[in-house]
Task: inverse folding
């Protein structure tokens, strides 16, 4: 198999996956280890950052929902400045760069600056979270589609097709949804969702400190009170009864 070279003076927009280094793609690993500069998010797992060689310059541009954040324009500036030195630059993003990762904003900034770029997809947190439940994001006879939603957008709460999401059998992964939980609960129940609709909270998906919090739409806000880490809310999915056994098998397989 041949791989495209990472040309000096370009930026690779790379998905680091949900956090477990074993879920990093081979191409992402190759680009990280061959980079001159890695500009990374706060949510990139420490185990993945540890794979970056010591001589590679690291720039932390972490963001925290409703907390301290690096302004997006400063991230653009850092990418462009590094690329203009002729460096091989990796913009390392948690999960998949194209899913709620400000990918289009960064591409537009690079295009405006005349900087070349390439996208390297990664495993998104929703896929890792569903795997931890022992569930598929889709299943015949249950749901033929899955929606990836964000709990908020640049203007506040993100509006959705609440009527469609409230239908029995609907499945959705809600990113950045902790603060919006009561709003989501109210909108869904207003549009006919049953109070006992399952909503599973997966905190720190794929990380060593991952925690799974089974809940329902009725109990969702209360179930989130003890959740301090990044979380994905899986609407319409419950942990499979054998989920704990699946975790044991994964550890044996290692």
Result:
């Amino acid at each position: 198999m041949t791989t495209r070279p990472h040309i000096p003076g370009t930026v690779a927009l790379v998905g680091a996956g949900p956090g477990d280094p074993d879920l990093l793609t081979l191409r992402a690993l190759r680009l990280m280890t061959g980079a001159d500069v890695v500009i990374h998010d706060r949510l990139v797992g420490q185990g993945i950052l540890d794979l970056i060689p010591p001589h590679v310059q690291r720039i932390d541009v972490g963001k925290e929902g409703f907390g301290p954040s690096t302004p997006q324009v400063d991230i653009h500036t850092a990418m462009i400045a590094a690329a203009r030195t002729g460096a091989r630059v990796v913009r390392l993003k948690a999960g998949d760069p194209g899913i709620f990762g400000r990918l289009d904003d960064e591409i537009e900034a690079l295009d405006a600056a005349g900087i070349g770029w390439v996208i390297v997809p990664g495993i998104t947190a929703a896929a890792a979270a569903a795997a931890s439940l022992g569930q598929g994001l889709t299943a015949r006879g249950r749901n033929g589609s899955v929606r990836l939603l964000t709990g908020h957008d640049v203007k506040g709460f993100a509006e959705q097709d609440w009527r469609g999401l409230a239908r029995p059998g609907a499945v959705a992964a809600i990113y950045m949804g902790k603060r919006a939980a009561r709003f989501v609960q109210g909108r869904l129940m207003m549009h006919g969702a049953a109070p006992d609709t399952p909503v599973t909270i997966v905190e720190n998906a794929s990380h060593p400190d991952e925690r799974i919090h089974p809940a329902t739409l009725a109990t969702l806000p209360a179930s989130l009170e003890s959740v301090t880490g990044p979380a994905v809310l899986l609407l319409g999915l419950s942990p499979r009864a054998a989920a704990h056994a699946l975790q044991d098998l994964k550890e044996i397989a290692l």
